[in-house]
Design goal:
The chain is of the alpha/beta class and 296 residues long. The protein has helices spanning 11-19, 52-62, 76-81, 83-104, 135-148, 174-183, 201-213, 230-240, 271-277, 284-293; strands at 2-6, 25-30, 42-46, 66-69, 107-111, 154-159, 162-163, 188-191, 195-196, 199-200, 218-222, 228-229, 248-251. It has a domain at 2-163 and 199-224 and 269-281: Rossmann fold. The chain has ten helices and 13 strands. Strands 3-2-1-4-5-6-11 form a seven-stranded parallel sheet, sandwiched between helices. The longest helix has 22 residues, at 83-104.
């Protein structure tokens, strides 16, 4: 099977490439000031998601049977400050990819977000109403809407806050950022009024590959087993990595002078993930221990 992965060097893209079966041939696009080396299974192409002609030529030459669209900007504050740019990338890029999927007959997986929910009625199942509270969530929801109108088989995957090892040249996540600070003896301020069920990137990738391999269709909320505050999450990471938990200081929204509101609790129900995909959500302990034991 030929699979195209956009955003192939991001946290989820990296996990997808590290966990794919040997029978899958992958082309992975990325956009950054670095060069990736091809291997026997993966071919990398540096390509801006806004480059419509570039993607038309890529689809024409490669003819992917499945496209997993992970590329996009993931910061709510950046989205609020750069609405036009984020719309071009997160929404315009998604439209372009779907058009190519339709033209070249590729199935499509859109990576959405828990950010489509308002945080007032957690935990959220796939059929629960989406009511985003910031521009980032609004754009993700619009991406879902155009995905549902696609004329090819399309799937929506909503991962919650992900953690895991990222490429050093890519954006850090809350776990790696916090561990780095704690290792230097720095204080880490973390929300004690924002709740999620954190998701190991490898666990999310396993869910996506199950969708691909079993030709699933529909919406899937993907999360971990434990609902915790961000403060509890970072404190647990400190404990697992034998770092000073006292340096993890609880704060509430507003402490960082955020531009936009974060939903208070977007923890996700994982029944569909478990029952239809057969993927067991990892406990926070198990996920963080895995991360600790696989550090390079």
């Amino acid at each position: 099977m030929k699979v195209l992965i956009t955003g192939g060097t991001g946290l989820l893209g990296k996990a997808l490439l590290e966990s794919c079966s040997s029978r899958i041939e992958i082309i992975a696009t990325y956009f950054g000031n670095y060069c990736m080396q091809d291997n026997d299974q993966v071919k990398y192409v540096k390509l801006d998601i806004r480059d419509k002609n570039g993607y038309i030529n890529l689809f024409k030459d490669y003819k992917p049977e499945m496209t997993v669209h992970t590329a996009g900007i993931g910061s709510p504050d950046f989205a609020e400050k750069n609405k036009e740019l984020v719309s071009q990338i997160n929404l315009g890029g998604t439209k372009s990819i779907i058009e190519n999927c339709e033209r070249f007959n590729s199935k499509f997986i859109f990576i959405s977000s828990n950010g489509i929910y308002d945080g007032r009625n957690a935990p959220y199942a796939e059929e629960d109403k989406a009511e985003p509270v910031n521009y980032y969530g609004i754009i993700k929801l619009k991406g879902e809407e155009i995905t549902k109108k696609a004329t090819i088989p399309a799937i929506i995957v909503r991962p919650i806050l992900m953690y895991g090892w990222h490429y050093l040249f890519e954006r850090s996540n809350i776990m790696t950022q916090s561990i780095s600070k704690l290792q230097k003896g720095e204080i880490v301020y973390a929300y004690d009024d924002v709740y999620v069920n954190p998701l190991l990137n490898i666990n999310c990738a396993a869910s996506i590959w199950k969708i691909v391999n079993e030709n699933k269709i529909g919406d899937y909320n993907i999360g971990g087993a434990d609902r915790v505050s961000i403060h509890q999450f970072v404190s647990k990471a400190a404990k697992i990595f034998n770092l000073n938990e006292a340096l993890v200081v609880p704060v509430q929204q507003g402490f960082f002078n955020e531009l936009v509101e974060r939903p208070r609790d977007t923890s996700l129900k994982t029944a569909k993930m478990e029952n239809e995909l057969g993927i067991k959500p990892l406990t926070l302990d198990d996920g963080l221990i895995f991360v600790r034991e696989t550090q390079k």
